Amino acid sequence: MSRILSGIQPSGALHLGNYFGMMQPAIALQERGEAFYFIADYHALTSVQNAARLREFTHGVALDFLACGLNPARACFFRQSDVPQVTELAWILSNVTPVPMLQNAHSYKDKTARGLPASAGLFTYPVLMAADILLYDSDLVPVGRDQKQHLEMTRDIAGKINELYGADLLKLPAPVIQETTAVVPGLDGQKMSKSYGNTIEIFLEEKALRKKVLGLKTDSTPLEAPKLTEDSTILALYRLVASPAEVEKMENEFRTGGVGYGEFKHRLFAAIWEYFAPMRARRAELLADAGAVERVLRAGAERARTVADSTLARVRKAVGLR
Ligand code: TYM
Questions:
Q1: 135: Cβ below 6 Å to ligand 1?
Q2: Cα–chain-centroid distance for residue 6?
Q3: Torsion sign over Cα 113, 117, 120, 122
Q4: Which of 14, 6, 11, 12 is nearest to 184 (CA)?
Q5: Are 249 and 201 in contact (CB under 8 A)?
Q6: According to DSSP H, which parts of 36-195 are helical?
Q7: Quick check: 13 and 67 in contact, CB under 8 A?
Q8: What is the band of 318 on the pLDDT scale with cuts at 50, 70, 90?
Q9: d(CA 244, CA 233)
């Protein structure tokens, strides 16, 4: 049975990019193998440096993921820092990781280019991510396109370890990237991302959600004129949440003209609101049970630790740490 693993940073509230890029595929895959999903709170320390906020985000992300359909009876769901074994594996891996490879990481270059101070944590972020994946002998890693390079680095690092210490020591994982949702656009048409400030959060209140969606950037084509369907952010998002018939209708109206962007945005808002209605109901149920999220995370950590201990024992022995 294949092992599926993925992680998500608690660096803010979850948005449609997270949902369609990773959570929805991960939730679908939990039925098809042995899944390990975690909240990457060690990784979030690279950007969230306030204890209360980190705790609040971690709890919020766990709650939202469960509300969206992660089934703890199928998937092992845990907090990354509850399995500190991963940091030991990261240290071991860092010794076969070439510095130029890390200097080449898109996410590192992107963040430092935007003025984020270059901490050692941010720099070695991909090594910790490789440890996350390799510690659980993962076969498949569902992610959005922005994580592709991190998966390549993970494979490189695992390959180096195996070359040095034994061909079968670590399993080489494969990314699972769905073409249609690999890059979900944000309000300004760029990739939806917390760091670009263009996100649509999944569990916004109705008024706030409507306001955000109506603020989506469009060109100045007048109401009566035909509009371009390619590269339309409204359509790209609508395709994710509306029925095929609704999408076809909107595409036709784009082509013929006569309907303005304002109306399209109202429809987009309504479709998003409706799409997430069952998740909102489930979230309200979870909220009513104060200890529910913590119970799930603790049970998940216990199971994850068993797998982690066994991989780490294998690696320690292979590299000569006893
Ligand atoms: P993070 O927390 O930035 O994002 C979580 C997941 O959401 C996907 N995603 C998107 N997909 C499509 N379109 C978008 N606009 C969009 N925005 C976000 C991301 O690709 C990701 O899959 N480094 C990881 C967390 C991590 C991890 C791991 C993942 C740590 N260890 C081990 C897999 C395996 C990250 O920062 O994701």
A1: no
A2: 8
A3: negative
A4: 14
A5: no
A6: 41-44, 51-67, 85-94, 99-103, 106-113, 120-135, 148-165
A7: no
A8: very high
A9: 17
Q: Return the pLDDT at 277.
A: 98
Contact predicate 81/41, CB 8 Å: yes
Task: Look at the block and give the residue holding tokens 């705790």.
Answer: 55
Which of 322 and 43 is assigned the larger pLDDT?
43
Q: Taking 90 as the threshold, does the pLDDT of residue 322 lie above it?
A: no
Question: Beta strands 75-79 and 174-176: pairing type?
Answer: unpaired
Residues annotated catalytic, as ranges: 111, 191, 194
The identity of residue 303, as a single letter, is: R
Tell whether ligand 1 has an atom less than 6 A from the beta carbon of residue 6: yes
Each residue's pLDDT tens digit, 59-108: 999 999 999 999 999 999 999 999 999 999 999 999 999 999 999 999 89
306, pLDDT greater than 90:
yes
Residue nearest atom 36 of ligand 1, based on CA coordinates: 9
CA 86 – CA 119 distance, rounded (Å): 20
Confidence of residue 117 (pLDDT cuts 50, 70, 90): confident
Give the burial class of 250: count Cβ atoms within 10 A of its Cβ; 0-12 exposed, 13-18 middle, 19 or more buried: buried
Nearest CA to ligand 1 atom 27: 7
Indicate whether residue 192 lines ligand 1 (CB < 6 A).
yes
Q: What is d(CA 39, CA 59) in angstroms, rounded to the nearest whole number?
A: 9
Give the chain's end-to-end CA distance (angstroms, integer): 31
Q: Are 22 and 6 in contact (CB under 8 A)?
A: yes
Beta-sheet strands, E only, within 162-283: 174-176
List, in order of start, the domains of the chain with CATH numbers.
3-183+290-319 (3.40.50.620), 204-275 (1.10.240.10)
